[in-house]
Amino acid sequence: SKCRACRRQVREQAGEGDHHEGLSSDEELTPTEVDEFQKSKDNVLEDSRKIFEDVHADFCDIRKILLKFQEWKEKLPDSYCDAYISFCLPKLLNPLIRVQLISWNPLEQNFTELEEMPWFRAIEEFSDAENVSESK
């Protein structure tokens, strides 16, 4: 575009060689903006660590929560079924999983795959146990 050509000409005259073609200069962040973003991100992460500070471990650990539901299903299958627990679990676990995903960034080089996260494995084990008990 005409604007892009103008900006390129201005950069060439100013001797800016570190611009990557295809990136708009409008999209490039200033060091101040990068610092503000990092501070904001750090504050969010710090706040997220405090969310479950006053919650008993049995009620903020996904594996422990799912074990309680597994026990319920084994001891009182009719009651478990009548409560439509399989429909409730996604809503119940959603906040716990979201807190664990706050710092997750799939665009980083060394990011953890979702399937390798402890909460994912716990849900997978619970699902496998449910499928086994249903097949009986």
Automatic annotation (TrEMBL):
Domain GCF C-terminal: 63-125
GO BP annotations, alphabetical order: mRNA splicing, via spliceosome
Localisation per UniProt entry: Nucleus
Top-level taxon of origin: Eukaryota
An MF annotation (GO) of this entry: DNA binding
Chief place of localization: nucleus
A GO cellular component annotation in the UniProt record: nucleus
Protein name, UniProt field: GCFC2 factor
